[in-house]
Design a protein that fits this description.
extended; coiled coil; CENP-P; CENPP protein; alpha+beta
Length: 190
């Protein structure tokens, strides 16, 4: 009977250790997401939150400021989408490995460029060395709607092999723009 009690305790300890491990991973992911903001932005957010909780802000003024900022951001986003043709619909990031000077993250990204849909999945290795940060893309996987064109298939395959995201986005932008022109032209003659 004593043995079953000890086993129950050990099972409970293992379950708690697993829960602690999962919470630590979740905390690390949240902490890493917060590193995308500068210390100044974080301090401003904290001060703003503290003023709001103390009732120091005037609701109408801060609300109108927020609306103006939102409109400005929407205008900038609209400009960038028209300028580049890219519209990102989803992005997810998961930290796979983290050490003192090395971080490996897995990214999933999907969106459209003009009328062509795409999905990317890749790992990003960031290494910090003497205040220099270098990033390397690996395990790039690209899924595109328009793979029936042999040239696009070759381009996607070579881009996946090289892990060259910049070339992919530049080339996709140009190709998608001309793809859209061709599509409209053929619709015109039908």
């Amino acid at each position: 009977m004593d043995r079953t009690i000890f086993q129950d305790y050990e099972d409970e300890i293992q379950a708690l250790e697993e829960e602690i491990r999962l919470l630590a991973e979740k905390y690390e992911d949240i902490r890493q997401e917060s590193t995308f903001f500068s210390d100044e932005e974080i301090l401003k957010s904290i001060e703003s939150f503290q003023r709001e909780t103390r009732g120091e802000t005037k609701g109408h003024e801060s609300l109108s400021d927020l609306k103006a900022q939102l409109e400005s951001l929407e205008t900038n986003l609209s400009f960038l989408m028209k300028f580049t043709g890219f519209q990102f619909t989803s992005h997810s990031k998961k930290t796979v490995e983290k050490t003192r000077n090395r971080t490996v993250q897995k990214h999933r990204l999907s969106g459209k460029c003009h009328s062509l849909s795409f999905q990317l999945e890749f790992q990003l290795l960031e290494m910090e060395d003497n205040e220099k940060v270098s990033a390397v893309v690996s395990d790039l996987s690209i899924i595109m709607e328009s793979r029936e064109d042999a040239n696009v298939s070759k381009f996607v395959s070579s881009t996946e092999e090289r892990g060259d995201l910049l070339t992919f986005f530049r080339s996709l932008s140009t190709y998608a723009e001309w793809y859209e022109h061709r599509r409209r032209t053929f619709l015109h003659f039908k």
